[in-house]
Design a protein that fits this description.
The complex is a heterodimer of chains A (321) and B (293). Chain A has 321 residues and is α/β, with parallel strands linked by helices. Chain A contains 13 helices and 11 strands. In chain A, strands 1, 2, 3, 4, 8, 9, 10 and 11 form an 8-stranded mixed beta sheet that branches. In chain A, helix 8 links the parallel strand 10 and strand 11. The chains are: A alpha/beta (321), B alpha/beta (293).
């Protein structure tokens, strides 16, 4: 499915869960389409995120962000997210933030995926995070009557669409992630009503038959597949490529002035027509070469050549540039 | 260094322990370690198995166990585990019966240091009434009821795996991964692993994603090639049908069962001698080709 068509299937007001981490494997190509299509009132679930949430904040798509952390790590805070979050939910263009720990969010998603009214955990006990959710009741401290032990009951978190970035998918929707890169995407996929997979490569089904244990998401869990080479740019997709430090630096630099940022965002992010145009607008082949792991480039990108590719990922491409 | 001999590792299992035993009816059971426990004369053990097979039958026939927690005990097409059945009927072994889902929930709660984990899997069954470790809970948020599965923390978990290094990092081939392997070692206080082969850490590093147990979770590693025999160990070897049939026949009566165990469990001085007793290299080679079924 084309990225634009898959993004068009997300209605305004939907709850969209985004995979990846702050600097890794975020479904950026899909997020860019959401921003281009000027979605409104989205609730964004992102256990840990950065640029993906910032684009949705910058484009005014997100009304609410449910998250453990939004940051650019070594490149600082996410400027648009910060600006709108500081304005608060009642301000024009402001943003509501629902804050959890990663683990508490995972427990809420687990409750949703197992159709349970709650999942207990000891995480969060003794922290002020519980007080943040006293009104909504999404977390509640309980005491086990049999043992007298306290626990936190995490209620289900409904997700309309999960969007994850993977290395390979086939036409029927089977998708796989190099094992090194499985973060917390499983949790959002299991919880979501629908899942959109963006893949570096579309491969034949025989690749999945040959290594069945490597299938991360079987096709019955996947509703749409979009081919998106370098689709995590500017975040990394190990072992294929690292994150693009230049893009992060320029983005943060532009955000020092709202006027400059809006020009940068229009020209460099949402302006380019296709994903290929976007990559061209952001350095083209030069930038892409720059984000390849420095060693073992020929092996990167093949799950079959995993041993060598993992070595390559460790040898280079992990430090910010 | 976590490398041990079978008798050294068996010493980590003490009389009265609750033992989580990796097991499917005819697959992937740590049989070499089970034989060692019987030879060492362990008593009053409790067993936790998703599905028990010949290992449970042998331990029951030897009078080694007095309680069992699990979903099923059977040798599939080779019939019921007759010595286990008789021991339960005679009241020598107490059984806590639950579903596989409920047992996994109990073990997961133990692994996470939670008092319980909820599941909806048992609603409408009588298991909730007969099992004190399962309790119907009204949802604190006004939703549908759930069953609270009480935490279960075994004293020791016994696992058979494909390879490990001397630091206790353990790898599994994905084809043989059952759910108990993932959770039993996390729930148990001690973890004893037999492996087909002890390898260098460099071998494990070739496929780090196949490491299912990191070294810090493992107390002992024992090299025991064909250590799951007579159960299968995918993809290395199939189960030994002839041996299962012989046991099923012997297990029909206490006397013949005792003779069988004397010949195959007590008489062989060590694991290598046992492998000779069950047919030696030719037989094992046939099992390795999955032809001896």
């Amino acid at each position: 499915m084309a990225l634009a068509d898959a993004a068009a299937s997300v209605p305004n007001g939907a709850t969209v869960a985004l995979g990846g981490l702050s600097m890794n494997s975020a479904p950026m190509a899909f997020v860019r389409e959401l921003a281009r299509q000027r979605k409104r009132d989205l609730t964004v679930v992102a256990i840990v995120a950065g640029m993906s949430v910032d684009w949705l904040a910058a484009a005014g798509c997100a009304a609410r962000v449910i998250t453990g952390l939004v940051s650019f790590e070594g490149f600082g805070l996410a400027p648009s997210f910060r600006r709108r979050a500081q304005a608060g939910p009642r301000a024009e263009g402001g943003l509501a933030v629902e804050e959890y720990s990663e683990h508490l969010l995972i427990c809420r998603l687990e409750a949703q995926s197992r159709k349970l009214p709650f999942v207990p955990t000891r995480a969060g006990l003794g922290t002020d995070v519980l007080a943040l959710h006293a009104d909504s009741g999404s977390l509640r401290q309980e005491v086990d009557p049999a043992t007298g032990k306290p626990y936190v009951a995490c209620t289900p978190l409904a997700v309309d669409v999960a969007v994850v970035h993977v290395h390979e998918a086939d036409a029927s929707g089977n998708a796989r992630v190099n094992p090194k890169l499985i973060w917390m995407d499983n949790e959002i996929v299991n919880a979501a009503e629908r899942t959109v997979v963006c893949a570096e490569r579309i491969v034949g089904s025989e690749a999945f038959v040959a290594e069945p244990h490597r299938t991360t998401y079987p096709r019955f869990m996947v509703d749409a597949v979009c081919e998106a080479p370098f689709g995590a740019f500017p975040t990394s997709c190990f072992p294929d490529y690292g994150h693009c430090g230049h893009f992060f630096e320029e983005y943060v630099d532009a955000a020092a002035s709202q006027e400059r940022f809006e020009a940068f965002f229009a020209e460099r992010v949402v302006g380019p027509e296709s994903w290929t145009d976007f990559l061209d607008a952001n350095g083209g082949p030069g930038a892409l070469i720059d984000i390849f792991p420095r060693a073992g480039r020929a092996d990167a990108g093949s799950i079959g050549g995993q041993g060598a590719a993992q070595g390559a990922g460790q040898a280079g491409g992990t430090e910010p540039r | 260094m976590k490398l041990k001999t079978l008798p050294e590792a068996a010493a980590l299992v003490r009389d009265g322990d609750l033992v989580a035993l990796q097991n499917m009816a005819t697959q992937s059971a740590p049989m070499a370690m089970v034989r060692e426990l019987i030879r060492a004369g362990r008593r009053d053990l409790g067993l936790v198995c998703l599905v028990g097979g010949m290992a449970v039958d042998w331990l029951a026939a030897s009078g080694s166990i007095n309680r069992f927690v699990g979903a099923a005990v059977s040798m599939e097409q080779f019939g019921l585990c007759q010595r286990f059945r008789k021991a339960v009927e005679a009241g020598r072994v107490r059984v806590e019966e639950l579903s596989e889902t409920a047992l996994l929930a109990r073990l997961t709660a133990g692994a996470r240091s939670l008092p319980f984990l909820p599941t909806r899997g048992l609603i409408g069954t009588d298991l909730i009434d007969i099992n004190p470790n399962l309790e119907l809970l009204e949802d604190p948020f006004g939703g549908p009821p759930v069953v609270a599965c009480r935490a279960l923390v075994p004293d020791v978990a016994l696992i058979h795996a494909h390879r490990a290094d001397r630091f206790g990092n353990v790898q599994y081939e994905p084809t043989a991964l059952w759910p108990d392997i993932g959770i039993m070692p996390k729930a148990a206080r001690r973890v004893v692993v037999t492996v087909e082969r002890v390898v260098g850490s460099d071998v494990l590093r070739l496929n780090p994603d196949r490491t299912v147990l990191p070294g810090f979770m493992v107390d002992a590693v024992v090299e025991a090639p064909w250590g799951a025999h007579p159960t299968s160990f995918n993809p290395c070897y199939g189960y030994d049908s002839g041996f299962h049939l012989r046991w099923a026949e012997a297990a029909a009566a206490p006397g013949s069962a005792t003779e069988f165990l004397a010949a195959f469990v007590h008489a062989p001085a060590d694991h290598a001698t046992y492998l000779q007793a069950v047919g030696g290299a030719a037989r094992l080679a046939a099992l390795g080709r999955w032809e001896a079924g």
